[in-house]
Fold:
Amino acid sequence: MKAASRDGAAALDDTRAFIGRFCALPTEHAYTAAVLWAAHAHVLDAFDSTPRLAFLSPEPGSGKTRALEILTLLVPWPMHAVNATPAALFRSVADPATRRTILFDEIDTIFGPKAKEHEELRGLLNAGHRRSGVAYRCVGEGTKQTVVEFPAYAAVALAGLGKLPDTILTRSVVIRMRRRAPHEHVEPYRARVHEPEGWKLRGMLADWTATVADRLTGYWPDMPPGVTDRPADVWEPLLAVADAAGGPWPGRAQDACAWLVRDNADRGISLGIRLLADLRAIFDGTRAMTTEDILTRLHALDAAPWAELKGQPIDARGLARLLDPYEITPAKVKVAGRSLQGYRAEHLADAWTRYLPPPTSAEPEPAEPPEPEPPP
Structure:
């Protein structure tokens, strides 16, 4: 993108400094993501999608609510919601002229044990990721009801304990919050004192993004190596804003994108993918292993779930059940002259190739299929 704006870089720098006064985010990449997300909310219609910004933590008191409070001062038409009803949210984002930026606290109460009661809200959050997203609802009374199409596209920041559903997690930039350590100090926040400062920054962001909206529309930023598909959709608006601002921001955005995407992928892998990765390491070029040997080695892995999966070690049946969706089944294998139930590397190799990143230089390639055994 040509003609980067000094005003843009300055506005982002000031926003970063303001957030840092009151929030102890876990990494510098997290500050970069929060700043760019706040800026992109001012020019939402320049993009085809908008990422959810998710502040998650394992315990209360980790600064999630404060982060949403600060963002409330920086984004257009903020709506700080706690347990908002779907109807309220539908109407809050339906009019593009006054589209609310949703800052949803305590999201774990929505997607916790009673998640099935909130499918409408989950559907809205999913559909609103895309500019073309709409939600259909019946409006009226009795037989006079009509189907009304509610635009759902809106910028959304979430905060809560634990995890989010995969359908929302994959649409999110995730910032994993933690309690402040004794050496991490932040300035006490007082709304009457600090709100005017935040509102001034909101005005700066709005004025600057208005000058670059035309250039942002249809702009395709370069992605860091390895960032494709859904993560690329998530980060495209934030990288575009950084490119428009110029200065150090394009480099910061690229680094933050690569780091946060990788961190989220490492933490969010499914149990099946974890098993495939551990099996690739266990086989280590071996052509075949018995189920008994595989289980013994899985149970011995440090920091792995296999020795205490749902309160007990994974067994042969659990192993087969986890591998079945990948079309991997146990078979008779000959090991040390014995024919026993087990698994062949040739049967695992296709799943390793499809679902795992390429092995590192220290990790062996999947074993070649064995030569056919002569008939007895």
